[in-house]
Amino acid sequence: MKNIILIGFMACGKSTLGKKLANKLNFEFIDTDQEIEKNENCSVAEIFEKFGENHFRELEKKLIVSLQDKQNCIISTGGGLPCFNENMMLLNQVGTTFYVKLNPIELSKRILNAKTIRPLAKGKSKDEVYTFVKELLAKREDFYAQAKFTLSGKEQNINFIESILF
Ligand code: S3P
């Protein structure tokens, strides 16, 4: 079977959902941020700091191109990946895309409570994070909406995804 690809804003829960799904279906799990960190031997935060966002976006593009021949994988993408370099078109060729949709209130709470450092939200206050999320999500929503399926609220579970696919 072709791959299953989870997209959505940072901290929406793509990786958690993806890992569960990979376990259940016995598929390989690929997280694009982790893959880039492994390849570059450097954290995402460090890549942003040392080489800038554009360089990171190039690495994301290269990675997605390299995954084109994969099968039976669950791919969880970085939040910005679908929104650059026509990646969304490519993602829709590489697998069945699911947009894990949360609202700005939920997303900002999750970003503020997360252990992972998100370079784009770093050093911001609670209010600033909310405004940042709201504005960036508005810009990205058109890209995310190109996913084959959108999962909101109760649909964000592996049984629902399975019921769509099989
Ligand atoms: C980013 C999201 C992050 C990571 C990087 C940039 C973004 O991934 O790729 O910090 O531009 O939204 P997560 O969605 O896993 O947080």
What labels describe this entry?
binds shikimate-3-phosphate; 5 strands; single chain; 166 residues; globular; five-stranded parallel sheet; alpha/beta; Rossmann fold
Overview in brief:
By secondary structure, the protein is an alpha/beta fold.
How would you sum up this structure, described in words?
This protein has 8 helices and 5 strands; from the N terminus they run E-H-E-H-H-H-E-H-E-H-H-E-H. The protein has 166 residues and is of the alpha/beta class. It has a domain of 111 residues: Rossmann fold (3-Layer(aba) Sandwich). A 5-stranded parallel beta sheet has the order 2-3-1-4-5. Helix 2 packs across helix 4 and helix 6 crosses helix 7. The mean pLDDT is 96. The structure holds shikimate-3-phosphate.
Rg (CA only): 15 Å
CATH topology of the domain at 3-102 and 143-153: Rossmann fold
Element-level helix/strand string: EHEHHHEHEHHEH
- CATH class bucket of the domain at 3-102 and 143-153: Alpha Beta
Attached small molecules? shikimate-3-phosphate
Largest sheet: 5 strands, parallel
So how many helices?
8
Overall geometry = globular
Order of strands in the sheet with the most strands?
Answer: 2-3-1-4-5
Mean pLDDT over the residues: 96
Strand content: 5-15%
| First-to-last CA distance | 11 Å
Number of strands: 5
CATH architecture of the domain at 3-102 and 143-153: 3-Layer(aba) Sandwich
Unreliable segments of 5+ consecutive residues: none
